[in-house]
Design goal:
alpha+beta
Length: about 180
């Protein structure tokens, strides 16, 4: 599951995809059907990446990606606006060992809502980016090894030595030196 680039914005409902960054803030695109774009100001907007979110556990914290994986495995749709007791029971099944005193019903509703937004997206079924990065690193290492044995083409220019560094400009004024 690849949750990289998907963020929750404080004060705004739903989830957003991080598209880019400019001088003012982050450019975000909503994941709903409207696909609206806006700029979240860095100074006063808090972003939380779904990849980094954890839920309080009795022994240790539970990653949100693990909870989503359990929800996908269970394959039972839960209505976040439905019965609170049913939601609490369902959340106990998908996030076994969560701290019942620290995790509120509103947190459970938010996680169920987020899952309903991303469950049909291709990002949800992709593998984590770490595996892709490891593969790219291994590929570049093999490329470096093979570059030493590759012959240069006949029409390649000969490399020349680099010239001396440019002289520094004098910062003294011409008057009264």
């Amino acid at each position: 599951m690849n949750l990289r680039g998907i963020v929750a914005v404080s004060g705004k409902p739903g989830l957003f995809k991080l598209v880019g960054q400019n001088k003012v803030g982050y450019i975000l695109e909503s994941l709903d059907d409207q696909k609206t774009k806006f700029t979240a100001n860095m100074a006063n907007t808090k972003l939380a990446s779904l990849e980094d979110i954890t839920v309080y556990g009795e022994d240790e914290e539970i990653k949100l990606a693990d909870i989503f994986a359990n929800m996908a495995e269970k394959d039972v749709a839960i209505d976040p606006k439905g019965d609170a007791a049913a939601l609490k029971t369902y959340f106990g099944e998908v996030a076994a060992g969560y701290d019942q005193e620290k995790v509120y019903g509103s947190d459970m509703k938010k996680i169920a809502t987020w899952y309903n937004i991303i469950k049909d997206m291709p990002l949800f079924t992709e593998e984590a980016v770490k595996e892709e990065v490891d593969a790219k690193v291994a590929e570049t290492k093999t490329d470096k090894k093979s570059k030493g044995t590759v012959a240069k083409p006949a029409n390649a220019k000969a490399t020349s030595r680099t010239s001396a560094p440019a002289k520094k400009a004098s910062m003294t004024s011409k008057k009264g030196v």
